[in-house]
Design brief:
- The protein has 14 helices and ten strands.
- By secondary structure, the chain is α+β, with helices and mostly antiparallel strands.
- The strands form three sheets. It has a five-stranded mixed sheet with strand order 3-5-6-4-7, with helices on both faces. Strands 8-9-10 form a three-stranded antiparallel sheet.
- The radius of gyration is 22 Å and the shape is globular.
Length: about 325
């Protein structure tokens, strides 16, 4: 059974290239990036560069620039980041999102977290805390992770899903260009503002299937990590089998082999950097170790009279956020 959203939106594209929308897009895209050479270039002659973007969009001549690819180590996992130039690409992506974000948000369920304003790790963690107040109904946990989620997003399926919500042909055309521009013509790139919403949107109808078809009461998804709680482990095993079928048939995705069904009362739930127990939670040990190592490094630097650079300042505040 497929969950359907009937309303489709049109007459959006002209709003994207409206000069006031482009000015706001530049304002948002440049945040914390004022040291970028391209940001300084646009700042120096904003009217000219934004009018050039407006011409590209009006004439539909915009072509996605070449990605700059780098590999980072994220908590022991190698991830490929694909970065687009600030001008014109990032401004254009922001201009699009300013007009379509509220439509994406209408599709997302209340338990969809990650890369959404106000729905970061703290929101996901607080949802889990709320669920675990029902001790009888949350005796067992099904924890799954979708394998290589970003790289395995199927372009044809993503474009079909987007057409469930949008009917503006010019908007669909530019979204298709952006989707098809990814290296090796598959997946969506990690690191792009628009990609974060496209990735969440790719799983949005799966979320509705869990909520409205399978009637799952206690579920939280943090991008490709999913936690489901129930009083019956047999139910969770059966649900996992049905999830396998749905993800394979509808989205061409697979759950990683490290999925688990376990009693929450014995070991708690390790999720979004915290270990959740009934009535309290703790920081994950690995997070604590990284936090301590980084803070000792920063303290040593400060004690020697050196100022923190931007990266170190961001790192300190990021870890501080875990403790709030």
């Amino acid at each position: 059974m497929e969950v359907r959203n009937i309303k489709r939106y049109g007459n959006i594209y002209e709003k994207i290239y409206d000069i006031e929308n482009l000015k706001l897009a530049h304002k948002n895209a440049r945040k914390d990036k004022t040291y970028y050479k391209e940001v300084k270039m646009v700042d120096a002659n904003e009217d000219y560069y934004l009018s050039e973007i407006q011409k590209m969009l009006k004439k539909e001549t915009y072509e996605v620039s070449t990605y700059e690819i780098s590999v980072i180590n994220d908590k022991g996992k190698e991830r490929e980041l694909c970065k687009l130039p600030y001008y014109p690409d990032r401004i254009i992506q922001w201009a699009i999102m300013l007009q379509v974000e509220h439509i994406f948000m209408q599709v997302f369920t209340t338990f969809t977290c990650a890369s959404i304003k106000g729905r970061g790790i703290h929101k996901a963690s607080s949802l889990l805390d709320k669920y675990m107040k029902d001790k009888e109904g949350t005796k067992y946990c099904l924890k799954v992770d979708i394998g290589k989620f970003y790289p395995n997003i199927n372009h044809s399926i993503l474009k079909r899903l987007i057409r469930k919500k949008f009917k503006d042909k010019r908007l669909l055309s530019i979204l298709d260009k952006i989707i098809e521009s990814t290296p090796e013509n598959k997946g969506v790139p990690i690191g792009s503002y628009l990609s974060q919403f496209l990735a969440n949107f790719y799983l949005a109808y799966f979320d509705h299937w869990l909520k409205e078809v399978k009637r799952v009461k206690y579920v939280v998804r943090y991008m490709d990590d999913i936690v489901i709680l129930h009083h019956s482990k047999e139910y969770l095993h059966q649900l996992k089998r049905e999830m396998d079928i749905y993800l394979d048939n509808e989205l061409k995705l697979k759950i990683k082999d490290n999925w688990q069904v376990f009693p929450t009362t014995i070991r708690g739930i390790d999720f979004v950097g915290y270990r959740h127990f009934y009535g309290y939670k703790l920081l994950r040990k690995s997070t604590c170790k990284r936090f301590k190592k980084q803070m000792l490094k920063i303290r040593k630097k400060c004690s020697q009279g050196h100022k923190l650079n931007y990266s170190e300042w961001c790192s300190a505040n990021s870890y501080k956020g875990w403790l709030i």
